[in-house]
Amino acid sequence: MECAMTEKTRANPNGAVTAQPAQAPSDSLPLVVEGIKKQYKGGAWANRDISFTAQPGEILGLLGPNGAGKTTLIRQITTELLPTSGKIRVFGMDVVTEPNRVKTMMGIVPQEQTPYLFYTVYHILRVFGKLRGLSPQMARERSIQLISELNLEKHRDVRVEKLSGGLRRRVLVGIAALARPPLFVLDEPTTGLDPHSRRDVWSLLRTYRDEGAAVLLSTHYMDEAETLCDRVGIIQDGRLFALDTVPNLRALHGYEFKVTYSRNGERGELETLYGKDDQELVNRVRSMGIQQFSVARTNLEDVYLALTGDKEALNGTTN
Amino acid sequence: MARQTEVATGAARVPTLYRGRLKLILDALTILEMRLLAVKREWYWYLMGALVFPMSMFYWSRALGANDPEAIRRLMIGAIIFGVSIQTVSGVGQSMIASRFQGKLKLLITMPMSKVSYALGEMAWVGVQTVVIVTLLLGIGRSVGVDYTLTWVFFPLMLAMVLTMAGLTLFLSSYAPSLEVGGIMTNLVGILLVMISPVFFTMEQAPLLLKMLGYVSPLRYAADGIMESFSGGTYVWSEMAILVGFAILTLSLGLWKLRWRES
Prior knowledge:
The structure holds two protein chains of two kinds.
Chain A: E1 9-11, E2 17-19, E3 22-23, E4 31-39, E5 45-54, E6 59-63, H1 70-77, E7 85-90, E8 93-94, H2 99-104, E9 106-109, H3 121-132, H4 136-149, H5 165-177, E10 183-187, H6 195-210, E11 214-219, H7 222-228, E12 231-236, E13 239-244, H8 246-253, E14 257-262, E15 270-275, H9 278-287, E16 293-297, H10 300-307, H11 311-315
Parallel strand pairs in A: 6-11, 6-12, 9-10, 10-11
Antiparallel strand pairs in A: 1-2, 4-5, 4-7, 7-8, 12-13, 14-15, 14-16
Chain B: E1 3-8, E2 14-19, H1 20-39, H2 43-63, H3 69-101, H4 104-109, H5 115-143, H6 154-173, H7 179-196, H8 208-215, H9 218-230, H10 237-257
Antiparallel strand pairs in B: 1-2
Helix pairs in contact in B: 1-5, 2-3, 2-5, 3-5, 3-6, 3-7, 3-9, 5-6, 6-7, 6-9, 6-10, 9-10
């Protein structure tokens, strides 16, 4: 597909060449993944026939256990790794044939990345702003603006090595946001962060989503996927098992409610019953002579356990 | 043609961005700026590291009995080649290996820049170091009475030699299995190449084995060409052609092996 960035150039009064704004075609989605397969040299399959799209103004989470193929998929989207087969398009541009143009549209936070330690927060944002393609003046201005947006004013002239893990992660999100990309791709952006730092990152991502950007992130935190993401994809063994909103995933799972109880009082082992109707579940537990129990809606973790094969955890107690 | 573009999408507007060849050059300059920012606080260690070894080699060799002005000139040339080569190898090697094994390259790879820009930026950094080292060594040489007349061919010869060593280091560092071994590998090859090449002495003075190695060592051609330049001559076309050939070969190999994306 012809890309959206065809430019009409003209010289400005000071001799620099600038471009007329070019409109992205309305049919170009932020991200289209079509039948992606990735096989490593040893023969192991990391991704098997994965297809999905990301829409503007949504946060799409990829949830899966370690080794499920999330990072491999993300590295292919960010142009770092070549797919074995299939297509990935970012605003209509192919990630294999036009990696640098694709990256101008994408803000990327790699997994477990430590930013350069010996620079101050301001310096690292400014130099990476220039690498993003901003003019020196714009890189300076954007860095100052981001320092404010990221609540890093107190740390502006502090070297990155002296920042906490949460603050470093905020700097990385800032680097990704330098050119206001319409697509963010983040690989486990909150791993290892304390609850406050995680919420700070969530808040930033919600802001970018609300501004119209598409956000794709991988995570293995259920609460993160459930709280933050508009849609969640569940990956295991390189396959995308399901992709939908959390309520729809629960419906797909088939059990809307669960009741948790113990046959032997407070000290006994907890058991769980799943069902579509909460009143029916309560009646069944009471018919077993149990008076102390709790009823709740099933959550993403229940769906995840069912879909990723931990059937024992689910089926063992399900009638 | 250098271009800037502004893209309006359904999301927030992407600001004006540099693209094309101008971006390539600006990226290389930004990489150089990053290197300069990183050494700003501890610059004197870099300077000492670059000067101590070549000056020591020069004085040791001279103390061993070289009194002939031509032999002293050759020792001076050897010191310059030694200093610049080691600085190039350790500078590019350490940067490349640290980038690979400490994940810094990963962050750069997320940027819309080409690996050529990265390599050019690293070369520019090596160039800055070379200018400082050579200027200081030439000044020190003059102050201790080394008799030389520099001609213009010295500069392209140095450039070709530095590019050759940088390309060789880029290539070698792609084979480094770890941070520690990578450091040993690049330094070992750099030092070995200087030691086995006839740079502190002429090809005629070299033993047979070193003579044979000298024919395939780029540093020997650099030393011979610089010797001619130090004697006021400019007829170094064969040395220059061979060095340029080495530079093209090693840089091509180095860029080819520089992993910007994996298959």
